[in-house]
Amino acid sequence: MSILTTRRVSQIFFLFLFLWFCLATTLGARWFQLRGWPVNWIIQLDPLVGLGTLLTTRTLYAGLVWGLVTVVLTILLGRFFCGWLCPFGTIHHFVGFLARRKRTIKAKMALNRYHAAQAIKYWILVFLMIMAVTSLAVDALRLPRTTPLGFAIILILGLIALIVLTVRQAKPSVPKTLLAVVIMAGGWVLTSFLFHGDWRPVASLQIGLLDPIPLVYRSINLILLPLIDHTTVLASSAPRLYAGTWLIASIFVAAVLLNIIRPRFYCRFVCPLGALFGVLGRFAIWRIGKSREECTDCHLCEKNCEGACQPTRRIRTAECVLCLNCIGDCHHGLMGYHTAPSAAGEIVSPDLSRREFLTATVSGAAAIPLLRIGGNPGPNWNTHLVRPPGSLPENQFLSRCIKCGQCMRICPTNVIHPAGLTAGLEGLWTPVLNFRIGTSGCQHNCIACGNLCPTAAIRPISLAERQGLDRYAALGPIKIGTAFIDRGRCLPWAMDRPCIVCQENCPVSPKAIFTRELFNVVRLQQPLVVKSADATRIHFQTDALVANRYATGDYFCVDPERPDRQRRRIIANTSSSLTVDENYPFEPPPAIQKPVLIQIRLQQPYVDPRLCIGCGVCEHECPVRGKRAIRVTAENESRTREHALLIEG
Amino acid sequence: MARSAKAGASIVAACSIGYWFYDSAGPERQTADATALQIPDYSMPELGNRMSIVRGDNRFKTLELALKSIGGLETFVKKGDRVLLKVNAAFASAPMLAATTHPDMVTALTRLCLKAGAASVSVTDNPINDPASCFRLTGIEQAARSAGATIVLPQKEFFKPYSLPQAQLIRKWPVLYDPLSRVDKIIGTAPVKDHHRSGASMIMKNWYGLLGGRRNIFHQDIHTIIKELAMMIKPTLVVLDGTTTMMHNGPTGGSLSDLKNTATMIVSTDQVAADACGATLLDKTVADLAFIKKAEAIGLGTADFRSLGPVMESL
Questions:
Q1: ipTM (interface pTM)
Q2: Shortest alpha-carbon distance between residue A247 and chain B (Å)
Q3: N or C terminus: which one in chain A shows less Cβ crowding within 10 Å?
Q4: Between β-strands B51-55 and B311-314, what pairing exists: parallel, antiparallel or unpaired?
């Protein structure tokens, strides 16, 4: 099998493996459902996720350690991930191939020529990484004040290193170096006084916006599979809806269609992961290159060059995605993958000028503090942002969530949705609960999302912790919000209609929704003046009643003249008469010529905030289908004491 | 070869970073930092309980006489002491509306402290309205400055999570710890005010201004929080200013018609007794104010202030 065939097999294998993982991310124990499938594996192999969370949280969470495998292989081999593994890359590869299939060789060569704009992906990488590194950087800047000893050690080591480097130079000038060190150290000390308070919350992980792996997971999970659901093939446990996916779809479709303009457009110009690999592969042991400098200059090797890395001339190794097409296309056998650098020379560094790097750094560092001037997260937090159970406090959540959509896919009730601007621009596509969509609210017996979340933005909680059992009894159940009754919309509160569907569906025991009984006088066009009456049946002088309307069991007849004002349940009525329950006869019967009243028995719902966990089952079930009459907002959510509603916290 | 070495070094570096920061369990459930902060006891039990009640309209004179009759402020404030005045600066309203500690109280207390040899006098509160506006509009800032005291505006980093031993509510709660930790003596001073939720806002309720965070959720159990505040702060001395009493529409007031001239200055080492005495100015009894009974029940002081044999004077 030729090496090119091997590459294609690898690409197809990983693409289908990825699609399989997406499909299998369905709660259940059948072979095609979640069971033990390592559905996060491709996310975990993505070192940008590992590196990003490492910078924001200073930890490498569980499976993300797989990223190291990719890093090590990339250091040895170059960007193999892009050309051999990345499912998004494979899609681009294939679409790009289709799009240029009928072009001339010359046109293909032109399409695959290196473009200066390929540096943009490095800007993007720097921009996203700097956002993540803010808190770490501030801590480093504060080092002279927080850890003077550490600062001194760094200073001395730096000084020694610089002096050694200076002395080794052609024209050494030690005083100049010393002056530079003094200025830098002084600047560092002065800067350390600029920052106070806790800067750790300012780290924000935004790689998920453009990192191809979360992007492709999100796109397949939230667009492709729900689309399939609407055919006769069911790709989910039940047909899925996801709020606001138009943006996700637009970006995915645009990224795929851009391959018509240039093959692997996304990989070449946008992909921050590819940029990271480009940097990591700088010292790769094996690399693509020419074995001899002289060749016929036929440029055929650039005909199908996926990375646009100009193998004909000085090859840009950071751009090479190891598609190996050049090896197959060179008719003279000059191209190869070997340990020696290309005979025509190499450009190993990414094409990123110092000015561009600085611009990306400064804008990245400013972006998150700038967004947070809006006060969100913070005093201006959005009460509609109900996060899945086990979600970390918002600052920490934003420092972990990669917007991959795995929680949204696994959620058995389809209640988790990608946020639009509910969580602010920073929280775009992070999970938010939407109780109007889905098959139920957030189920009391489910902990799927947190146990799947690849970065622990939603913690892997146990059922005992969620429900506040066993050793969590003192902490109580995890609350994600509180239900509030809108008394202007609630049927028993505003419209004299019995209902309490919310109370019936409240899943906690004892129920968080309770009722108070109330009897309201029914509004009639005319008073019910008694024409004749016996112990159980009353005839009226007018035809004021709608037949049978009051026979539901919720209506009662009251004779206001009686001192006891005892209510008697109506069991039947015609337009001009009603019959009451024979167990409570009128004795004596109501007086002729006097009016009686009809009352309706209502149970008005109340929420006990001590018991409500914010699961939203009530909101989901509420029969007021538009804007629900009971709605959950994030008040009293366990994850942040600042959102506490009750003294008991 | 150099390239292989560099590649090898990169691999080693990446793997060691990965190993070093590896976290198999993920983050823990969030709980506030448990700190073992202690708030010092500022009281001087060796002096015994002392109390005086002086009638008169002029705060300078009544205060001076009241202090003199329990031995003078120099009995409580020694040379070199750093003193904190915990005022009531809750609202950004004018001094004549008596919703806040009167600036004359700040002037008089600061002068007397400095006269007694205090090394420094600081004035603090975590008000409800905007802090800077509160200190400015109440006249407290100007009074403190002129008399030689410093204003400590509450800053975020001054608050530390604190757990009060045996408390039900003040647990891992942000407390204005920084100014408390920097002084040797605390004098609490507050006006006598109607308070719709608790019945009265006097000395004990005034410690509320040492709490940070979402403290208003404690209104769900107001008497317990006031009791716990009195447990938290053991003051050197308290001065309850009943020169003018806010009889209704408290605790903000806003109109002179809410006020009544009650011409009384109460100085006490026992904050419960001071509040019990202040209650009489509001035409209330101890039975109306559950927090007084609660504080008394756990031995923070006596609700029967007359049992302390207060010195009664009149100008």
A1: 0.79
A2: 31
A3: N
A4: parallel
